Amino acid sequence: xxxxxxxxxxxxxxxIPVFNSGREAIGAIRSVVAQTNVSVQEIVVVDDGSADxxxxxxxxxxxDLSIPVRILSxxxxxxxxxRNHGMQNSDCELYAFLDSDDAWFSDKLDRQVPLFTDPSVxxxxxxxxxxxxxxxxxxxxxxxxxxSLRQQLFKNYFQTSTVIVRRQVVExxxxxxxxxxHAEEGDFFNRIAAHYKCLLLxxxxxxxxxxKQGFGASGLSANLVAMEKGELRNIxxxxxxxxxxxxxxxxxxSYSLIKFVRRIIISPLRRFRNNV
Length: 276
Fold this sequence. Notes:
Radius of gyration: 18 Å
Number of domains: 2
CATH architecture of the largest domain: Alpha-Beta Complex
């Protein structure tokens, strides 16, 4: 699907949080500049209290780009706070998020933005290189195109660098939650899925950190525990908002715990395989 005249009128602002990763972020920024058929109005880079020269480096490196790049510096508060700050400082109709160590394929926006011609669509995601095999095979029939809250409670189908969200939707459901350093994006996606149509385009359009793992990449069980606590908190929040009933809550929590045990087993096996 190519950009239509209606979708072409939607303004797109790209939000990129940076923490001691200014040089990595250049690749992400260049991938935005390289987008085809869809114009990006601005790139908002939020330096999240970096201890290095990331902000100064990016100001110099982005001077001659074809898209305006604003570098905002704030005290360290985590990626969620940085993304929220970026949205607060952008008047674009669509917010597209991108992590500093990820990169978009050149047709990402061209494939996603036209889906917003449906006014009921609140968020659109896609698939990353990490999910290229299993995800594409499982979604070949297109049955996962529309992702409901019920589905989202059992599996987070969206990765931050893949999603585009309407500004009006964020104003309605609220931004990323603060005070939660792990799986915080899940609560944001859950709130959107509870009230708006969320689409997952089964196409690989994001290079996910050059092959980084989605969980347990460091091999630290503490990371896995923190991620599980965050995921359970997201499920409980959905219940507390009455977005789901007790029966769904109980099943979702049980399934999450089963996945957690599986991850605890898989993580050391993956480290062993990588070290062989």
